[in-house]
Amino acid sequence: MVGWLFVAPALVMYGLFVLQPLVLTVQYSLYRWDGVGPATFVGLANYADVVSEPRLIETLFNAFRLVIFFSLIPVTLGLVTAAIIQRVARGWLGTVSRTVLFLPQVIPLVAAGIIWGRLLSLQGLVNELLTAIGLGGVTRAWLGDFDFALPAVGVIGIWVLLGFCTVLLLTGMAKVDPALYESARLDGAGWFAEFRSITVPSLRYEVGVCVTVTVIAALATFDIVYVSTGGGPGNATAVPGIQIYILAFLERQVGLASALAVVLIVLVLLVILPIQRLTRGDA
Amino acid sequence: MVTTGMDRTRAPRRAGPLAVLALLVAACASPGAVTQAPTTAPTTAPTTAPASGEAPSGSAAAPSESAAAAGPNCGTDPVTLNAYFETGFDLPFKLSDEFTKQFPNVKWDIKQDQFTNLMSSTPRLLSGDNAPDLIRLPSMVSLVKDGLLKNLDEYVTAFGWDKFPPAQLAQNRVAADGTRGSGSLYAAGLNYSLTGVFYSKKLAQQIGMTQPPTTVDEFEALLAKAKAANLLPIMAWNATASGGGLAFPLQNLMAAYGPTDPINDWIFQKPGATIDTPTNLTAAQHLEQWVKSGYFPKDVNAIEYTDANARFGKGEGVFMFNGDWQDAGYDKDQPQGVGFFVFPPSQSGGKVAAMSAPLTYGIAAKAKNADCAASFLNWVATNEKAREIDVAVGGSNPGGPPDLPVPPAAAGSVINETLAAGAQVGKDNGAMDFIANATGSIFAQGWTPELQSLVGGKEDAAGLLKAVQAEYEKELSR
User: Fold this and answer.
1) Which of A282, B56, B137, B361 has its CA 20 to 30 A from that of A86?
2) What is the per-residue pLDDT across B82-101, written as a single tens digit (0 to 9) for each?
């Protein structure tokens, strides 16, 4: 009973701001509704629209392409970075690099998107650097280029999420029994062998958390994309979040927007649940 | 956005929020591309303050002479108008200050928001308990369908708006079947913007342009000359954040090669209307040719509205398609250095046409002070001082009764050129709404991505029109 009292405030908030909207979204997805006027029940018609419309499907593909940049690269790089910091930079250097890497987490994503928009523009710093090292030929307006806009957005994602992964993995590494490393060294194991045989396996749970959080960040991304490219050029960086926003607030198709949102939720769950099972399993 | 269309709405509106953010970013070190921004964004805030200070409340407030004018008014008792204005545009704030000066019993409770936010929040604001007496309207048809906007027909007769040129009110009329352009009046314009071609006088002279081109061929010859002289022929924006600015030249070309009526019918959602016509194809092919000839900046798909203006202000680009709401900015960047002409017809001596749209304000159906708000709208169109502010601050034609003179702007200002051009367009009956306003999302889902694809070589002129028409039909079928 006392336990329930402690949980109650959080539970009320959770129910009000998470569960209720979730249920309402599912409900709205079954209606044709402009957000104000009368709503018409249409069954699964909105879902049929979502799967039959190439533009909406395309946003899902883009989201999965972003997983490479938002999840795969930050987690891999984060492992390597954390291992390096753990091994060679335990003192003030480690603290500084941890802080620098984690800083993007503190900066509002909207501000980050704008700064990167400037950096990646035709006259931006990125192109200046490329020109300075003799690569003037490849300079372009990265966020306005059909082939490079998505990877460019991905780079912003790496910048944002690398610090998060690194810090989380570093924390996990601190828990690994130093005796393991010692005995491995006695057996003549090098840095890479230690990394592969001790560090990575011990961090299974932390890696699971990193992958989960970053995959969700990739699939459900909105702010970075909205601010840096708005989904353009064409639909090169259009993600479900942007389409949901446009459908709900510009086209005022609340039902269709909700259906896309539900599809997105289901997809996220489908991707996340196996990861959870794999990393938690019988660890 | 419907109405003002592109004008401020689509394009510049978006620019506002980013300008503010850009300022924040600039403060912490990013390179200077955004120096332009400060001129628009911050200026509005202070103007709200004086309103309360100047208005003596209570019985001390003497009704001014003109308060006794015919029609509904604000009475003599203290009244507070609940208003939603658009961040980044001075005009409504200045007008509200002046209104309070003349009618001291009227105070203002002004909230402001970015245009894009207004687009998403207007239905909620209008249907809420404290519905605004006066609100900047981003779009109308769906709001009318939901019964959220006050029908202004009674004021049309009470104030004599029926004597205004009919074209002025047409864009704010919505018929029973949901088409725009005719039917009952649901909004009024604070002023009427005009779009066309701005040019740098210095660069134009450099390529031998002694007078504005009189045909599209002449204009294209000038573009070629500019290119040959290693100048950027046209500065433009086409990034998603600001919306596809190439829609400006495209629609100008459409009106040069075909009649304006079918274009307006399409925007107003008349049954069977199509944008995919032979003359529009000719227009789109010309635009495609301009793209292929390198007449636009090569990074145009990444250029936002404010950046385009900043770069034009620094002398990059001979021409720029834009609207008169940017007049003050051009005057500031290049004093007396910018000229303006209406996009020329295809045949010499043909009629000119231009996108022209009201800066639309409406009244909530549930507004508590509807009469007072309506009298403000009438005052804006007819009061001498209000019309002066309209021209000096807004840069656009104040509209109103045809017999009232349009107050002149400062000598040497490009405003005088846009006002003169507006008269020419009016004479030729060439006013069009903006193709980006046909539906709530045709700009975001149709024009912008398709125009970007045209720039990126992923789409040709014919495909562009087909894709936009398909999106239009799909949206209307929902």
Assistant:
1) A282
2) 999 988 788 999 999 999 99
